Amino acid sequence: MKKVILISNAVAFSLFLWFVLFMGAEDSTVGAFGFLIFIIPFLFIMTLLNVVLYVIFRVTRSKDKTRACPACARVVEVGITTCGGCGFDFMKAAGN
User: Fold this and answer.
1) Beta-carbon count within 10 A of 19 CB
2) Cα(88)–Cα(93) distance, rounded to whole angstroms?
3) Domain-wise residue ranges, the chain
4) pLDDT tens across 15-66, in order?
């Protein structure tokens, strides 16, 4: 999902940059009004698209069932109370 968000932002930025550089030029027939007609809805739509994609990303991301030991950085499952590598006690560190 992060790739989709990055690609949509890259496409949006490319279109925006293209419009600013080529369509907003002084010799263009579009002019300032045409620029505003394009840019305001474009920014609004891209903002909505980013919000929707971010919500989808937050809802659908997988819940991680592992954590890293703070002492040795070994990956252990969430239910484990002591690290198998260094013996770090997660319960003691949590104050239980």
Assistant:
1) 16
2) 8
3) 2-60, 63-96
4) 777 776 666 555 556 566 666 777 778 788 888 888 888 888 878 776 778 8
**Alpha carbons within 13 A on the beta-carbon side of 63:** 4
Please tell me the predicted confidence (pLDDT) of residue 50. Answer: 84
**Of the candidates 16, 35, 38, 39, the residue with the CA atom closest to the CA atom of residue 26:** 35
Backbone phi, psi, residue 68, to 5°: -100, 140
Work out the burial of residue 50: count CB atoms within 10 Å of its CB; fewer than 13 is exposed, 13-18 middle, 19 or more buried.
Answer: middle
Predicted TM-score (pTM) of this structure: 0.43
Q: How far is CA 56 from the centre of its chain?
A: 11
Tokens (6 digits) for 18: 């293209």
- Please identify which residue in the block is written with the tokens 């620029």: 35
